[in-house]
Sequence to fold (367 residues):
Amino acid sequence: MIARRMSLIDSSGIRKVFDLARTMKDPVNLSIGQPDFDVPEAVKQAAIESIKAGRNRYTVTQGIPELHASVRQLIKAGRGIEPEDVLITSGVSGGLVLAFLALVDDGDEVLIPDPYFVMYKHLANLTGGRPRFIDTYPDFKLRKEALRAAITPRTKMLVINSPCNPTGVTYSREELEGVAEVAREHDLLVLSDEIYDCFCYRPEYPSMASLYPKTLLMGGFSKSHAMTGWRLGYAAGPGEIIREMTKLQQYSFVCAPSFAQYAGVTALAAGIGNARDEYRAKRDMIYNGLKDDFDVQKPDGAFYIFPKTPWGTDQEFVEEAIKNNVLVIPGSVFSERATHFRISYAATDDTLKRGIDILNRLARSRK
Fold:
């Protein structure tokens, strides 16, 4: 009865931990990949006003003109480019579904740096493609030599995510220039998921879209403005691709939520306030708190850190952490390896301090 394609994807390991969290009493929850601040008041008010004004019907599939203009302005100001076309999507996840459906044929190879965001692998499988992983351990850097070695005659697309979920690594300009060099050699399409661009703690945030024209850029509002449940994102890039994604959206999502689109204009105008500085401080707290007892890379973006397990497999260590009331995610959810685990430091300082103490105690327990 069930389609064979469903056997190619697993239930999200993240969702399993979320479900477990609901059954626990006052857990130290370091698993949830969403901001711990609320949607800005001005953005909430804009959504309420749009609902009251009757803007509750379908919008045009490609998104309202006002938000199109704001997204174009954002990309021009932040990346110095003017994309050929823009599509407003139902979150970045919705945009990823449309992109994979529009681009991946049976047998096409999709290059994915490992570790990776959970959707990439499963979308490649679901659309008939073959995920081909580029190992970036132990420092999670993407080197052009490793990329070049992974390319075959069936390679169709490279997917990158910077800042990265789950590692927090942000690719440097030098790394991305190397990627662009290899992509030009093989005429590769690059899908660049830049949902965490606002949480980059380097002096400069380099974007793949600024360096290589054949880039499909993905961005959104879930992380920057805590609008995770509003399902609002965008795709920008080559017009031919955006037009095909728009066609697919007509027969799937139809359009992004109307009230969220109008509020999105206000969100882009409002900015993110002090959120970047606050999360940089949380990054410093979690890294400095763990580095003596864990083998861990210091993240320079997003709100995740990806320590190596001090003993056992990722599942064994995470199970022990959960027994001690700390919720974290096994690294094998995001990787072909079972050696690390993901922490989200989008939490209160008190929660972070409690989590650090418990995790360090667990690390020392078998030394």
